[in-house]
């Protein structure tokens, strides 16, 4: 059994469990970085019944490593053909035989997958690690975007944002205590119980601000007013996206604490709670996706309208489209950060000189009649050149893959960075 390892996937991450030496050999052979799964945390939580005694024995005998599902680790899941378990959303496989780590697959009732208590606990820890990875990526995101965001997040004049900042401090303190104690006790949990309401209030406020930016774009009649509204959407939009990202980060932190609390107080309810949190998290993502998509649609419409006026408004029309591009990039980047699926394209302004050259050439070719046609051309819709979304998506995908391994440790315990 020493060379057998077990693979467990919950759709967001992959855990490799088994004898520590076998786990290390497997990860080295696959060339994948990982971090400690922390199976030992399950021991104190599983404290009653014969099944728990067996689970405690399994925990003592196994080492576990975890990695975020990326293109490479997803290929590993496909390669080894994981089998669904009775735990919803979780699949499993056993790999190896004495003398060969890559040879065969089988499902063993004596494995982790055959112990419901341990499998539920492992799935709960995997969910926590995935959310913690997302939290780190959001921290990196907030650190590199416009410095004005910091002013928004710290603006004490706004009561809604001030409450979120206060809640954030309490949550960060609770996470520190959790890391020190290895659990979330009743006192620590009592400090953060009211946090979700304050975070949800701030999230709703930020979403309303983004909707307001979209409505301003729709209501402007002149290209000059449209350019002003587009510049406001460009400057304010990224700031409110940052507020949403911070809200999402804090909600994930609360979920991590919540899973620890359930594991400690009611381990038999852990699996149901994990699934409930996953559904709630997806609902938040859907809500953010719909709101940001509305803003993108308004920016696209503004860019299309500006392109029809490029000759009459050689300054404002390109400015509108440039702002549209910047907002589109910011939202695509935001979607990539949170794993929101969807394809977007950004518009490229038609340069005034190019449009004017068409008028001149048309006039020379057709005489007076051609001049009239060319003038009319300036008032008609000009074709919109597009940047292929693949460039944006590829950049985000590459960055996400790099982030997925940025704080993971290799199988020998050494920190690696793909950045």
SSE order and pairing:
Elements lengths: L4 E5 L3 E6 L1 H11 L4 E2 L5 H4 L4 H12 L1 E6 L2 H10 L2 E2 L6 E7 L2 E7 L9 H29 L3 H6 L5 H23 L4 H7 L2 H25 L3 H43 L4 H39 L7 H23 L7 E3 L3 H27 L6 E3 L1 H16 L15
Antiparallel strand pairs: 1-2, 1-6, 2-4, 3-4, 5-6, 6-7, 8-9
Short description:
With 419 residues, this protein is an alpha+beta fold. The protein has helices at residues 20-30, 42-45, 50-61, 71-80, 116-144, 148-153, 159-181, 186-192, 195-219, 223-265, 270-308, 316-338, 352-378, 389-404, and strands spanning 5-9, 13-18, 35-36, 63-68, 83-84, 91-97, 100-106, 346-348, 385-387. Strands 1, 2, 3, 4, 5, 6 and 7 form a seven-stranded antiparallel β-sheet that branches.
Question: Would you give an account of this structure?
Answer:
Strands 1, 2, 3, 4, 5, 6 and 7 form a seven-stranded antiparallel β-sheet that branches. The chain has a two-stranded antiparallel sheet with strand order 8-9. The chain has two domains: 5-117, no CATH class; 145-350, no CATH class. It has 419 residues and is an alpha+beta fold. Residues 48-56, 98-110, 343-360 and 366-419 have low confidence and may be disordered. The protein is elongated, with a radius of gyration of 27 Å. Helix 11 runs antiparallel to helix 12 (316-338). It starts with a strand and ends in a 15-residue tail after the last helix. It has helices spanning 20-30, 42-45, 50-61, 71-80, 116-144, 148-153, 159-181, 186-192, 195-219, 223-265, 270-308, 316-338, 352-378, 389-404, and strands at 5-9, 13-18, 35-36, 63-68, 83-84, 91-97, 100-106, 346-348, 385-387.
């Amino acid at each position: 059994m020493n060379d057998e390892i077990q693979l467990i996937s919950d759709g967001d991450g992959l855990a490799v469990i088994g004898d520590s030496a076998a786990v290390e050999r497997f990860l080295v052979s696959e060339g994948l970085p990982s971090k400690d799964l922390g199976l030992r945390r399950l021991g104190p939580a599983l404290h009653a019944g014969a099944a728990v005694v067996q689970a405690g024995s399994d925990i003592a005998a196994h080492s576990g490593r975890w990695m975020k599902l990326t293109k490479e680790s997803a290929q590993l899941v496909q390669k080894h053909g994981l089998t669904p378990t009775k735990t919803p959303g979780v699949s499993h496989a056993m790999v190896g035989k004495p003398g060969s780590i890559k040879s065969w697959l089988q499902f063993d009732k004596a494995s982790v997958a055959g112990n419901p208590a341990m499998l539920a606990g492992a799935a709960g820890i995997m969910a926590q690690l995935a959310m913690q990875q997302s939290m780190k990526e959001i921290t990196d995101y907030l650190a590199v975007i416009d410095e004005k965001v910091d002013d928004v997040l710290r603006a004490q004049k706004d009561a809604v944002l001030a409450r979120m900042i206060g809640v954030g401090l309490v949550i960060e303190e609770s996470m520190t205590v959790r890391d020190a104690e290895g659990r979330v006790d009743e006192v620590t949990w009592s400090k953060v119980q009211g946090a979700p309401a304050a975070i949800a209030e701030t999230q709703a406020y930020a979403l309303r601000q983004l909707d307001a930016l979209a409505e301003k774009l729709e209501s402007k009649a002149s290209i000059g007013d449209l350019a002003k509204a587009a510049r406001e959407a460009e400057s304010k939009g990224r700031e409110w996206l940052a507020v949403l990202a911070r809200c999402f980060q804090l909600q994930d932190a609360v979920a991590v604490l919540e899973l620890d609390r359930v594991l400690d107080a009611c381990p038999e309810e852990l699996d149901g709670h994990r699934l409930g949190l996953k559904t709630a998290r997806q609902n938040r993502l859907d809500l953010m996706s719909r709101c940001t998509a509305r803003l993108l649609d308004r920016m696209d419409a503004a860019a299309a309208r500006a392109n029809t006026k490029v000759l009459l408004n050689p300054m404002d029309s390109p400015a509108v489209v440039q702002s549209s591009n910047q907002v589109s990039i910011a939202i695509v980047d935001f979607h990539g950060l949170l794993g929101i699926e969807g394809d977007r394209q950004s518009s490229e302004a038609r340069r005034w000189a190019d449009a004017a050259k068409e008028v001149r050439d048309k006039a020379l070719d057709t005489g007076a009649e051609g001049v009239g046609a060319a003038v009319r051309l300036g008032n008609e819709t000009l074709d919109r050149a597009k940047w292929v979304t693949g460039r944006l998506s590829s950049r985000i995908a590459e960055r996400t893959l790099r982030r997925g391994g940025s704080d993971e440790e290799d199988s020998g315990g050494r920190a690696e960075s793909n950045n």
